[in-house]
Amino acid sequence: MNAPDRYERFVVPEGVKKVSYERDTKIINAASFTVEREDHTIGNILRMQLHRDPDVFFAGYKLPHPLQYKIIVRIHTTSQSSPMQAYNQAINDLDKELDHLKNAFEVELARFPGGSTGY
Question: Which domain of life does this protein belong to (predicted)?
Fold first, then answer.
């Protein structure tokens, strides 16, 4: 089969950055972020979090090819912000939100007898 090994979908090769930034030369306050070894799961929640920011005009992502394990996130912001600020804020907000979700799940799981030991 021509598909790469499964582990290649998750392990970032040595010398390759997890996230790279490229400013758009034609549109002010627009940039693209290439996130290595990620797919629709991260792309969609990151896009939705960026849409919550009032300073973001546009946020979208794409997978260039099914056998290339990376996403390209495109962000266009107002003059009050920058794509880098919007990206960092979205990542920080998602980190807090997912941490809260994990803690709430663990609290509910602990309420049931044998909750943390199995099903």
Answer: Eukaryota
